Amino acid sequence: MAEVYIALVDTPGFFASIIKKVIGIDYCHVVLSLDETFDQAYSINRRNPAIPFFAGFVKEDSVKILRKFPTAYYRIIRVPCSMEQKKAIQKELESCYERRWTIHYCVIGLPFLLVKRPFYQKNHYTCSSFLAKLLDEQGISLFDKHSSLVTPRDFYELTGFEKIYEGSFSSYLSDRVYWKEAKGHAW
Predict the structure, then answer these.
(1) Is the model's pLDDT at 69 over the cut of 90?
(2) What is the pLDDT of residue 151?
(3) Starting at the edge strand that comes first in sequence, how are the strands of the sheet with 162-168 ordered?
(4) What residues contact 4, with CB distance under 8 A and at least 6 apart?
(5) Percent of residues in the chain assigned helix, strand, coil, to nearest 5
(6) Can you name the residues that pair with 77 across neighbouring β-strands?
(7) What pTM value is reported for the model?
């Protein structure tokens, strides 16, 4: 048995505050990681954490995130999957990363989301629609609706998965680095 990790993220900012009001929770972003330390984490997000206008497929950079959003609050859940599913997810993420400049944030889909009408524009996604579609294509179907209608709130309301952390991202990473170093030492 393998697993992937989904982080729901509460970041500050004007655009984030609008999303929070619309979906009714503080977590306005979702990230998928192949590992517990978020070294292999991907999402549809700002290409540069400091500039909200240019968004698309990115490999998350924990150092840049902590520098720009030191108080970012994360809720992390572990999602079990088969080793074959995890390898397929990794392969698809690597493929998306290779063509990352062709994958964009789906701004024009947001009104459709508000009126609960499925919408698809080639290579355009929200963070949550991308993640829902990716997992569904690998047989990890979490929602009974079109992926374009999935919001961070849907991930927040998931049940049946282990929540492994909730708190500041800096504390989470500090704990993981400590345990990673401790495992490497012979006591």
Answers:
(1) no
(2) 92
(3) 124-125, 104-105, 51-59, 41-48, 29-33, 2-10, 73-81, 162-168
(4) 32, 33, 34, 78, 79, 81, 86, 89
(5) 40, 30, 30
(6) 6, 163
(7) 0.87
